[in-house]
Amino acid sequence: MAAALLIGGCGALIDRATSNFATDLEQAVVNYDEPLVVERGLPAFLLILEARRQANPDDADLLVNLASMTGTYASLFVEDADGARRMSARALGYARRATCLEKTPLCNAGEKSFEAFEQRVAELQPGDVDMAYALGTAWVTWIASASSDYSALADLPKAELLLETVAGMAPEHDDGAVWLYLGVLNSQRPPAAGGRPDLAEQYFQRAREVSSGRNLMVNVFMADEYARLVFDRELYVELLEEVLAADADQPGYVLANRIAKARARELLARTDDIFF
Known about the structure:
single chain, mainly alpha, Serine Threonine Protein Phosphatase 5, Tetratricopeptide repeat, globular
C-alpha cells in the first residue's frame, strides 16, 4: 500500500511538472526575440508535450497550453494550407477536450444548434473564462484555416458569440487580445455584405487601449484588415509606420512584435498596389 501511494504521489508530481513545463515553455516562446529559432525549435517541444498528453490525457491545463501553442504555430509559421488546417484542427480538439474535462457548459456545445449553444454560453461563470477563451481562439484559428469549407464558416457565429461573452465577462483577459480577435472577425465583410467595420474599429481600438500599445500585432491587423476594408490609405500607413517606430521588446510580446515588424515592412511595400 505504501509503495502504491508513493507511486501515485510521484505520478501527481510528474503531472504538475508537465503542466508547469508547458506554461514555462509558452512564456519562453512569447518572449523570444528570434522568430526563426521558434519556428524551427517549437515543433520538437510540441511533440514532447503531445507525448505527455497521451500519458496524462486528463490534464486540462496541459491541453489548454497545447491548444494555444499549436494554434499559434499553425497561424504564424505554417504556410502549407493543408498543414495549417490539420494543426488548427488539432488545437481545436485539445481545447474542446479541456472544456469537457473541466465540466464547463461548453462541453460538446459546438455540436448543438445556435440556440442551444447560446443557452450553454449564457451558463458560463467567471471561473470558465480561461476555458471559454481557449476554445474561442482555437475555434477562430481553425475557421480561418478552413475558410473554403462552408461547414467551418457556419460555426463562425458561435465562435464570435463565445468571444463576445469572454470580452463582456473579462474585458482585460489575455491583455485584451480577445478584442483583437473580435476586430478581425468584424473586418471580414464589407458593409454591403452585412459587415460591421464600425464595430471592428471599436474592437481594435479597445485592444490597443488594454494592451497599452505594447502588442504591435494589433496595429498590423487593424491596417491589413480594417484599413483595407474601408480603403483608408492614410490610416493604413500610419498604423504600420507606428509598428516600425515602436520598441519590439515588450514583455509578453517580444516574438509577436518581431513578426509584426517584418509583416509591417511587407505591407508598407505593397501600399501602392493595395490602394491603387
